Structure formats: structure tokens, C-alpha cells
Queue: 2 jobs
Job 1
Amino acid sequence: MQCVVLGSAAGGGYPQWNCRCSVCSLYWNGDPRVSRRTQSSIAISANGKDWVLLNCSPDIREQIGQLKQLQPNALRGSPIQAVVLTNGDIDHIGGLLSLREGTAFHLYGTKTVLETIEASPVFSVLDRRVVSISAFAIGERFSPLPDLRIEAFKVPGKVPLYLEGDSPNTELEGEFTVGLEVSDAAGKRLHYVPGCAKLTPELRRQLEGSDCLFFDGTLWRDDEMIAEGLGSKTGKRMGHMPLSGAEGSIEAFTRVNVARKFFIHINNTNPVHIKGSPEERATRNAGWDIAHDGMEIVL
Ligand code: MLT
Ligand code: MN
Ligand code: ZN
């Protein structure tokens, strides 16, 4: 199995267009310790020719520009055969609007996420005569490409921001947010979990023994956005567990056996963007890597 990271940042990317928080300011000021990151998505292939995208960010056009593997392979044609969604957040579906020029691909999501997309007339640009749309159930295996199987599993999260009421359940387990397990003919297992509110015992069992995990790296600290003066939202309120602290993912994963683990979906305020920062070093010392755009992994 081959895997390419298209984008590694959370919604808004890094730096974010309207932000001068302490971490974005480093980029705007030309600090060599930080690099641009586009919004999160990965691509997977079993044969190096045909690719399936896990989520499709608003940065997809720029990501295709950076990655030879995904560039057009015919007068009109693309190696992108399928897109599989983990939820309906704008940073995960916005790029579908850029894939509208009449080339066939398959779109997969839970029934709930697909209904949300289909409820919006803007997404009717995905012409059903060329784009086939299929729902998967949690725990059901499907094959978006020969030799690759995908199965969705439950991950605590919340509804997309644009569907939130005043006080959404932020640890909802159901069809609004899922994780994806990709396995190949050799039995390798890769897990993609760009958003997660909590590592439940069930989720821990699901991820045990993974050959490669991409996990929610949104915030370093739960109150990071508040500390930066960017409003009142905690990570918990956004459905994201932080990396650090007793309730954080670094601590939670000390008891899970995973061969390679990467943080992805890194918010612009997260100091792990800064090479050599105490937070970046602590993350690496704990056995984690920080995904970056264009990163390639072979399993
Ligand atoms: C999230 O990851 O919490 C969402 O992408 C937030 C958003 O939609 O801006
Ligand atoms: Mn997001
Ligand atoms: Zn910022």
C-alpha cells in the first residue's frame, strides 16, 4: 500500500488567511522553522496508478499541482478513482466542488454525510451521470479500488459546524463522524482519524496493532485558542481531544500498540508547526511523527 499526504493542516490551513496568532505570525514573518500546510487529506493506492482520496479538502487543486501521482493521465482523465469521507466538515468536502469537470469517480460516505451533501444544491454540480455515490454502513467492508478494502468505525465527534445548534453533543458516536481502516491484500492496516473527541475503549481496540495511524492533531492544549485570544472555544467544544495533558492523545496512546503514528489535521495555533519547539520535540520523543504535505509512506 502506498500513501501520500495531500494536506496536513486543520480547517483553514496553515497559516490561516486571516490570522496573526503567535504561530501564524512566524510564517508571515518568514521564520524558517515553519512550513505551509494545506487542509488535511491523504491518498492511497495499491498499484501506484489508481488512487483513492480520504476526504477532499478545499485545497485539492493546489494539492494535485504538487503531487505528480494525482495529475491528469489522459486528455480528460485522472488517477483519482474515488473519494471516501470521514465526515461532512467543510475542510473535508469542500474540494468536491473542484472535481466537477465531468470526469467519473466514486464518492463514498455514510448515509448521514451523503444526505447532508445532497441537501445542498451547490453539490449538484457533481453530475450523477459521471459521479457515482454510495453509502457505507459502519463496520461494512467495501472496495473503492481492487486490492484495497475500507471499513468505517465509530469515532466520538460532532455534527459539522454549519449544522450545530447552540449546544451540540461533542462526543456523538454515529454516522456524522467516522474513522477509516484501509487494508490491502498483504494484510497491512492503515487508520485515518482526522477528528476525534475521545479515545474510547472500543476505538482503542479498533486501532490496536495498526501498521500506520493518522490521528487528530488539531490542538496542543484544550484551551489554546482562548489563550491566543481567538474566542471562547475549547478543543472539547470543537470535538477534538488535545495532544498534551492527562486527557490528551499522547498520553492515551501510550497503551496502544501502533507501528507508526502521525498527527494530522493540525490547527494553525498548534505549536507543533514549529520545528524545534518544546511541543514539537515532546511529540516526537513520545514516538509520534507530525505529518507534512507531500509525505509518502509505503506499507
Ligand atoms: C473541525 O475540524 O472542527 C471543523 O473543520 C471546524 C470547521 O468546520 O471550521
Ligand atoms: Mn476540520
Ligand atoms: Zn493562526
Job 2
Amino acid sequence: MLSETFYTKMLNASSTGIAEASELLRQGHCVAFPTETVYGLGADATNATAVARIFAAKDRPSFNPLIVHVASIEAAWDWVVPTDWARDVAKAFWPGPLTLVLPKKASLPDIVTAGHDLLAIRVPAHPLAQQLLQDVDLPLAAPSANPSGRISPTTAQHVREGLNGRIAAIVDGGPCAVGLESTIVGGPEPRLLRPGGVATDAIEAVLGTALQQVRDQATPTVPGQLSSHYAPNAKVRLNVVRPHSGEVFLGFGPSDCDVNLSPTEDLIEAAANLFAALRQLDATGQPIAVAQIPMQGLGVAINDRLARAAAPRG
Ligand code: TXA
Ligand code: MG
């Protein structure tokens, strides 16, 4: 039996908390931990059973590959073959909210990449993620710590709401600073697989070329490319100027609304608030109307997540 029932322990951001998290991970359990993007649900990437427990806890389709997290750029090259472009981009954005998809190198179990010969890898910047990766001294496979298809968690409490009783522990590091998942580039040529916490134009500046965006294909290769994803329970309507009666309104900029992503039209602040705001409005049980968000900087990733939240559900 892979699914287990736990009393899910809340661990604090102390060295004792980190040591306890490391011990549980070494024993093959799943532990949620903060990164600067969203909370991840970590497991020892070298242990197929531990990785399988991630899929069980999240009810995640087994064909959806996972991102492996390591403490440093050097450690990343133990697991993937770096190309020249990848070295440049890694140097510019790691540690940080960027994931690279590159040819898989050594002997990680197949379940991590769901059989693909490319591996998604990231060096997170969050100090607690860094401490945990250094302490545990293992690569950690970690998807966002939410039930599959639901809104990603940006606080320990969000993780608890979705996965309590299904995972061994949660390291509480407070709210995530970026609040959106990492930008994913590669495959193995530099293509944009998912917009995210690093703005696309910043990556293009390092590459010296435009990134081709791969998404919403007829046959998606990975579920992050499925159109309905990151979904609240409520219906979501986008680019709304005036909400209908009965709708709750998620605003942006100076606005009379129920929750405001950023009263000052700061896209970084809006990204950090997005998932918590969707949860808060979803809890009202009413349909959600969302104001228009500009398509620039992190607005591209925000609009990507909103479009998925609003897509017809399968
Ligand atoms: O910010 C983040 O990326 C967070 C934190 C925890 O690191 N993680 C995250 O993981 O968002 P997840 O599993 O929720 O989303 C990862 C996306 C999925 O859409 C998955 O299909 C795609 O990355 N992916 C993973 N491995 C891949 C691969 N080998 N090739 C292409 N896409 C891949
Ligand atoms: Mg996810």
C-alpha cells in the first residue's frame, strides 16, 4: 500500500524542524516544504517508493513527471546534461524560480520523469529549501503540494487544507514570496514549457533569442499543459470590468472589489497574492469574476494560471 494515513506534523523553521524533516525524507516519507514559488511536496528522488507516495498523496496521474530540486548548480549537473544555453541561464537565474528540462543523466528511477528521457530540475532560492536540501543531502522530487489539479499552496496552512493526513509533515516557512510556480524552459532546446516566476523576457535577454512557447497542444505532453488546471471549485470569469450580481470580484489596481491582487498595479505583488486570493474567494462558494491583468512581466504567468482556472473542467 502506497497511500498511508498520517497525523501530519507541522514542523517549524528551526534547525530541529529541518532535522526532523530530513529524517522523515530519508525514511522515504513525503514532507511539504516552502520554496520561493509555492510549497513543494518533497520525497527522496532516488527512492521509487518514496516518489510513488507523492503521486498517491496528490492523486496525481502517473504520467505527469516531477521536478527534482537540488541545492546548487553543480549538484544539478549530477542529474542532467547541461547544454551551453542551460549553463548560461542557470548562472543567471539559479538559485531561483526557474526549472530547466534537460537530458536525464544518471540513475534516477523512471517514475520521477514518468518514463521521459528528459528531467526537470531546479535550484530553489528559499533559505529553508536550501537548508533542507543541504541537510538531507538527497535530490528531492517535489511537485506543488496540492491535490492534483487544484490551486497551488503558498502557505503551510494551504498545504494542510489539501493534504492533511496524507503526508508525514509540513515545514512551515510562512507565505511564499513569488507565489507562482517556476518558469519551465527546455525540452531539451530552449522552449518555454510554462511561464512562471522568472519573466520570459529576462530569460530571452540571457539567451539572446526569443523563446518559442509550447502549450495547449491537442495532445499535451505534460498535464501542466492541460487547459484546465489550477482550478478552484467555483466558476471563474476573466477580463471583467463590472462583476455580475452574485459574483465575487478579484480586482487589480484601484478598484471596488472583494479581494485586490495589487491596489498599486504591481505585478510582482499580484503574483504573490494570486493563489491565496483564489482560495479566499473560492471559500465564499460564489462564482469568481477577475479583472483584466496586463500581459507584461509576471502578468504573462498570472494570465496563464487564470486561463487554466477558468477553463472548462474535464
Ligand atoms: O515552482 C515550481 O515549479 C514548484 C516548486 C515546488 O518547485 N513545482 C511545481 O511542480 O510547480 P508541479 O509538478 O506542480 O509542476 C511541474 C510541471 C508539470 O506541468 C510537469 O508536467 C512539468 O513541470 N514537467 C515535469 N517534468 C517534466 C519533463 N521532464 N518534461 C516536461 N515537463 C515536465
Ligand atoms: Mg502543480
